[in-house]
Amino acid sequence: MSDYFDRLEEHLLEAVDQLAAPSRLPRARRERPLRALGGGRVLSWLAVSAGVAVSLAVILVASSLHHSVAARSVIGGTGGAPTIDHVVPRVPKAVSEVLAADGSVLGYIGSGGERTVLAEHAIPSLVREATVAAEDPGFWTRAAQTSDPNERPTLTMRLVRALYLPSTSLRQASGRRAIEDRFARELSALRSKTWILDQYLNDAVYGSVGGRAVIGVEAASRMFFDKPVSTLDLAQVALLAGLPDARALTDPLRAPAAALRRRNDVLKAMVDGGSITSAAAASAERSGLQVHPDATYPASKDPAVVAYVAQQLRAQIPANVITAGGLTIRTTIEPRDQLEALASLRAHEGSARDPVAALASIDPANGHIVAIADNRSQAFNYAADAARQPGSAFTVFALMALIHDEHGDPAKTFYVSHFLAPGWSPAYPTYSVHNYEGSYQGRISVANAVRTADNTVFAQLGIDLGPAKIDAIAHAMGITAPLSGAPSEPLGGLGVGVSALQMADAYATLANGGVHIPPTIISSVTLPGGTTTSTRPTSPTRVLTIGEAAEATKVLRTVITTGTGTAANFGCPAAGKTGTTSDFSSAWFIGYTPQLATSVWLGYPSGRPMTDGFGGTLAAPIWHDYMQAASLSRCSPQALPTPPWSGGAYSGKHTAPTLP
Amino acid sequence: MGRAWTMCEDLDLLAAAARGEREAFAVFYRRHLSSVVSVLVAETHDRELAADLTGEVFAAALLAARRYVAENATASPWLAGIARNKARDSLRRGRAEQRARLRLGVAREPVTDADLERVDELASLGGQMVGLLGELPEPHRQAVQARVIEELDYSQIAATSGVSEALVRQRVRRGLSWLRARSDQEDTG
């Protein structure tokens, strides 16, 4: 007797028949399709990524690439057994390359094996000829399969084995050779010989390193010669062409003599096949193996940058496209700036016992992140992802609320700097504020309080302005951390901290004359098929008038010339602000020229205090060194324009009375 | 001929089923029946509803088969996701979901007491510990579920949950050892 689940199976199989005859399902087309894993992600991704201009078609093509064969019509009757048309090819995962703005390689994303895919036009014809000679001299002329088990499998059969018969399933079947034969025949009916050969060159295993397969001729070229396959000479090409067939025996690193013999056999086969002259072969035979392994490929030269790029990529590209790999991700990182950043950080905090030091640097005109580095170089990006208390570097937002919302002139608005004992602000009875080492200055202007990092003045100004205005302007200028409206926020006492990148972005708004542009690091992504999608420039938002920004710059300039940040003065007109947390767990300097906005943060991951942990003594010198080096071509005497802006004396509950 | 299909992976079975290969879908159904039933039992705590929804889950899978994109060698995580959604929708609405079945015209079978026993068997085949999962702290439950039931790679779990791979491993390890201790307790107590 059949049970419930057997009967259910019968009903479902009847439905399978119906699916094959769609006319019997008239409503199906009109209804919203169910979400399949890949398709659903594509749609939700499109919904959230308004910032990236990628057409729906491009991504749908990318995510359904491995369906391309399956989508074709069935060849002949199936007789109930799978045909190659049913079996979806398992394209090996490729590494994705992360490039700097100038095209140099910063690192790689993905751990699916060492594989870099070449497009048809990028495969040198010499490589094709060598491979055919080495593996399957009859490739171009004879049938794609051979049923004789004693004969060497053809190149097409080997491609079928790698692509369509994964190790876990059909490959272990007893009739494997017969299935391979049939699939090879079917594949050659579907595809051109050139396609099959190129696919083989991209998918064959050429060796292994560190226990991981080196897949495809380009990865093999990088691995054994540390250069792209397009630059190899005949001897090198012949060496690679001989590897897939007997890689364990002829690994040039482990068995150089056998590899040399195999290479010379391939050269001879090429002469026999007529693709090279015997003179060329003889000359190539005289050269050594020339193996120059690249130990770093595909390790990342800059893991912290790659970690951040990978994170940003996940917000822009569907997960299955990233997993499949083979992307080329062009970033906004300027290699020279990045090197200067690393050098400055390591020069000051170079030992493993030193605190973490991180730097983020942005081109204010377009939001491009030109450098983002730390002295740890792990797969965690401290500059982008460490959330730390900003200290008085956050007072700039109270300053901006004063200027922007109240038209208050910082030089004409005065407070009395003094110890604020509990109860000074009735709304927060326990809130007390003191300055470092009790240095109270009496009646001073807000402008002077910025210069000298006077907490008590900003505590009073913060209460007078109210948290809503300060939070609003901080968010508009680029702070993405949540702000709670707590009274200590203007002094940098945040619930959740901020990253160096957020602070650089916010100060970049001032450098850019009051226009905020969200920071970007990915400038374009090239899909394996060669389609390049550029990140659409994020839309600029005017947050402040150019005059308001210039007024802030005038005040922040004094921090560097005569204030707490004099160590940052590198000779080029610049403005900035120090930040020091009361427990010395974080030290900051954030500053800018019109060409570059840069923030530097230091702190131990554990949050333990740093010796002499002031922003002005720890962070400003790093900022100085980086900006000096990075600004060589970016410093102009007309820097920091000061268009007219006029405000009056702001009057709040705690402001000092205007002197007669 | 059926033997050849049993050697195929889910991706191929679904692609073939979408084009009317009965045998491919039969293999797929038998391969995943127990895990689907166990997810449904764990989600609904109602054997009859679980039996009823099994048809709906496979019907939905069949309808979506054409667009299935493999991220894993097995379709288990994908099916488990469908099963969870169907279970939750059904509980929310107070009646068994049957949209996919209606579209495909899959008839509803009455469930007998003997069938309920079969549900128990299938569910215990599919994951003895599934029922205990809900008692884990949320991050650990998610990690164990993604790794053990949905068979995702650690890197994928780390990417989707936004934490490091090391942390995911730690959560899975701790979650599993707790589950084992707990299931031993249940066995002996």
Describe this structure in words.
Chain A is an alpha+beta fold. Chain A has helices at 4-20, 37-48, 56-63, 125-135, 155-164, 176-190, 193-203, 217-225, 234-241, 247-250, 256-273, 278-285, 303-314, 319-324, 335-348, 382-385, 395-406, 446-452, 455-465, 467-477, 500-511, 546-562, 615-630; strands at residues 96-99, 105-109, 114-115, 205-209, 212-215, 328-331, 356-363, 368-374, 414-417, 442-445, 515-516, 522-526, 532-534, 541-542, 575-580, 587-593, 596-603. Chain A has a five-stranded mixed sheet, covered by helices on one side. In chain A, strands 8-7-17-16-15 form a five-stranded antiparallel sheet. The longest helix of chain A is centred in the middle third of the chain and has 18 residues, at 256-273. Mean pLDDT of chain A is 83; it is low at 23-79. Chain B has 189 residues and is mostly helical. Chain B is built from eleven helices and no strands. In chain B, helix 4 crosses helix 7 (113-126) and helix 10 (154-161) crosses helix 11 (165-188). The longest helix of chain B is centred in the C-terminal third of the chain and has 24 residues, at 165-188. The radius of gyration of chain B is 17 Å and the shape is globular. The mean pLDDT of chain B is 80.
**Helix percentage range of chain B:** over 70%
- Helical run tally of chain A: 23
What is the strand content of chain B?
under 5%
* Overall form of chain A: elongated
Number of helices of chain B: 11
Q: Describe the main β-sheet of chain B briefly.
A: none
> How many beta-strand elements of chain B?
0
**Model regions low in confidence, pLDDT < 50 over at least 5 residues of chain A:** 23-79
Q: What is the strand tally of chain A?
A: 17
Into which percent range does the helicity of residues of chain A fall?
Answer: 25-40%
- Cα(first) to Cα(last) distance of chain A is 105 Å
Distance between the termini of chain B: 48 Å
Bin the strand percentage of chain A.
Answer: 5-15%
On the 0 to 100 scale, the average pLDDT of chain A is 83
Instruction: Name the average pLDDT of chain B.
Output: 80
Strand order of the largest sheet of chain A: 2-1-6-12-13
Order of helices and strands of chain B: HHHHHHHHHHH
Oligomer: heterodimer
Helix/strand/pairing category of chain B: mainly alpha
Q: Give the radius of gyration of chain B.
A: 17 Å
